[in-house]
Amino acid sequence: MRTLIIGGTRNLGPSIVGALLARGDSVTVLNRGVTPDDLPPSIERLHADRTDAAQLGEALHGRDFDLVVDTTLYNGSEAEAAIKIFDGHVGHYIFLSTGQVYLVRIGLERPFREDDYPGPVMPEPSKADEYEHGNWLYGYDKRQAEDAFARAWREQKFPFTSLRLPIVNSERDHYDRIYGYFLRMMDGGPILIPDDPGLPVRHVYGQDVVNAILRVSKTGLGKGKAYNIGQDDTLSLQEFLGLLAEVCGVSLNITRAPRQQLTEEKLLPDCSPFSGRWMSAVENGLSKAELGMEYTPFSSYLSALVSYFKTRPRREIAGYRHRRKEISFAQQIG
Predict the structure, then answer these.
(1) Listed residue (319, 195, 329, 197) closest to 259, CA to CA
(2) Predicted TM-score (pTM) of this structure
(3) Contact 206, 169 (CB under 8 A)
(4) Strands, E, within 61-109: which ranges?
(5) Which of 110, 231, 236, 264 is most deeply packed, by most CB within 10 A?
(6) pLDDT at position 250, please?
(7) Do residues 301 and 169 make contact, with C-beta atoms less than 8 angstroms apart?
(8) How many CB atoms are located within 10 Å of the residue 297 CB?
(9) Ranges in the chain, pLDDT < 50
């Protein structure tokens, strides 16, 4: 199978490339060529800024692919450009979307189902609140992309499938969310979390996303459709932290504080990335029924992630930069 991966260097990218090579695909990767990677030297590399439609079209001119996996498409204009370039030149186009397309909808309850997608979208928040506006814009723009693909399917049978992902936990997560919690567990200091209940933690393991891509592309199922790809189990934040502490072999040490105070001190979201207000939880029944998906339990993949972290040198990450301030703040509030 002639396969193109757009992106391919961060988080899921290397695992997707490896799985497709192992399947026997002839793999080409297209990206800007800026992010260092350890991809196999056997793959073909193309370079273009995918946000520049002219560059993208020039790099792909005259090329046909059986499969395209697009990991770095974020808005409607990028979708329109991809449709124009690949129409008649691709057998199946898999777009990695997000559960955040549900978070900008009005009146929904978790976990979100695929048929929750249609309906009114909340108004744009003030740009003065960068966190709220940035998260809203991410979900809104991904909806614009999904809508463009859906129109192209209705009008010209453009063979796309959208995979809607919640937070993806993987060994290569470049946001270092679980790794940040791991570092705090291992230093023995308290983990600061808001004193409100927070949102349910229902994410997905990166390898399960790779498996979904393999299933969809092998079977050809799901053209013109979207599937939620997410784990079965749902935990509270405290249950998640307790499970992680158990896997790490440490005692759970948390300190609760008012959310507003943590925000004013600029400790959130670093101190607890799973305490954010923008965290989707998706219902996975359709992917299980139609694609035969099976999902890795949270406890199993947390064990895999912790084993991975423990066998590699400790890294300094942005999310751990205010750790001393966190500990001092926890001591002050008792």
Answers:
(1) 195
(2) 0.96
(3) yes
(4) 65-70, 90-98
(5) 231
(6) 98
(7) yes
(8) 12
(9) none
